[in-house]
Amino acid sequence: MIEYISKQKGYALIMTIWIMVFLTITALNFTLSNRFSIAMVRNFKEQAEGYYIAMAGYHTVLNYLKSDKDPAVDFVDEKGRFHIDSDTEPLPEKVKVAGGEFTVKIIDEEGKININYVNERILREVFKNMGFEADRIDEMIDSLKDWIDFDDLHRLKGAEDDFYEEYGYTAKNGRIDVIEELKLVNGFGEDFFRKAGEEAGMVRSVFTTFGTGNININTASPQVLKLLGLNEIDVENIMQQRTETIGGYRAIPAQYTNKGLKKTWSAYFTIEIEGRKRGSNISYNIRSVIKRVKAPKGFRIETLYWREYVSYGSS
Fold it and tell me: What are phi and psi of 211, to 5 degrees?
């Protein structure tokens, strides 16, 4: 009888222990779930606040671009700041607003080499200055033209549908939409992107698919100018003209027009905005490409590309 009672007490103790373990696990799970829910709500709130801050920054940039008092000239000064004219102060890189801040980056797409419209002679010069041999340049240019044109006729070293079908796609027969599309074109291997500086994030700063093909002498970077075949003296002369005091070229010297430098103002821009609530590690990002069109009263804006995303990092 005593042994039976002892066994009963042992079972009761074991059951009590298991119940305590179960309750402890349930309590911990509830606590963790509650903390997770609180974190989700906080992150959602900070993300929403970052969105509205980023949108405020985006519209600040649009208003800045539309306030241009001198449509004949846009320039990047010696400090790398984009100016819409000589009188208007450029936007600061970082702007503080109620509850947070946004960062601004305006990139002139017409300060780059347009892969869709660039003159073949100029493109050969660019590829040569990137370090490619003559045979490879022939293959790249012929394949690029076959990719863009609307016929199925092969250029001498080009490629049409019969070449690409092996890889599961065909020639586009249309203009390139984004620079990364070149990876699909015969002749443009990974080394092309390495030579253009992809490892440093520089491909998009050299080539573009937006605009009409004419390059703005007042916004082209020294890297672009050198790829176009300008020597160090010419590059230095151009950069000296693009100071905050002088305000860039109004007329383009004849020796530069045959390099594709045929504009002093721009219409196509990439806008990059990062909005962040004060103290938050969550930022809301907007990347847009717009076209600024002259209108009877100032300018109107056309959106050509739009992307928004959330990123996480230190505040």
Answer: 110, -170
